[in-house]
Design brief:
3 helices, rod-shaped, mainly alpha
Length: 204
């Protein structure tokens, strides 16, 4: 028999304290899960909106690129494309939501400075360039949102498992332990009371 299950007042106090802590832990896990779920639902809606915007912007960008190719020729547009520097300014920071590290991506907008002269291009190149710049910004934002949603979902799953363990295992175990020890102590008290009554009668 586990020494913690012996029917003593000390063990009863320990069991009651453990039961109280388990219930508080479950309440906290439940609140955490609800907060994370609310955040996740918001991110899912945001990701859906961004994806729709990306689809529309991509369609517009490729239409603009096609027009630029027609006006300048594919080789000239490729030549202009090679002047655009590789994006290497992305920096990832994080913020915490209930213990979940959520990414926040920052990048240097100066990377979008013109790398060609207006005098050698038509307006179609500028429109295509701006459309693809929007695509880049939206893609960065979508990556941030989807990564955040993935991390939140993983934490929600972990929190749910802990909450279930507290609700279905720990709390019932300590509830039963408190009940068992309380009953045993009450039985002991009744036996002691009966014993004292018998002794008192014998003395009379």
């Amino acid at each position: 028999m586990d020494p913690r299950e012996f029917p003593t007042k000390g063990n009863l106090m320990l069991a009651k304290n453990s039961l109280m802590l388990a219930r508080q832990g479950y309440d906290l896990m439940d609140k955490k899960r609800n907060i994370l779920l609310k955040e996740l639902m918001g991110l899912i809606d945001e990701a859906k909106d961004i994806q729709e915007e990306i689809d529309a912007t991509f369609t517009k960008a490729y239409a603009c690129l096609q027009r630029a190719n027609i006006e300048h020729g594919i080789s000239k547009v490729q030549e202009l494309a090679f002047t655009v520097p590789i994006e290497d300014s992305l920096k990832m920071q994080t913020r915490s939501i209930m213990g979940t590290e959520i990414p926040h991506i920052k990048y240097d907008a100066k990377q979008n400075d013109l790398t060609y002269s207006f005098s050698i291009t038509h307006e179609s190149v500028d429109i295509a360039r701006e459309a693809f710049r929007e695509v880049k910004e939206l893609t960065i934002k979508l990556a941030e949102v989807e990564n955040s949603a993935y991390r939140l979902a993983a934490n929600i799953k972990k929190t749910q498992k802990r909450a279930n363990a507290l609700k279905n295992i720990t709390i019932p175990m300590y509830t039963n332990l408190v009940h068992t020890i309380s009953n045993a102590l009450e039985e002991k008290e009744r036996e002691e009371f009966t014993r004292l009554k018998v002794i008192k009668r014998m003395k009379m």
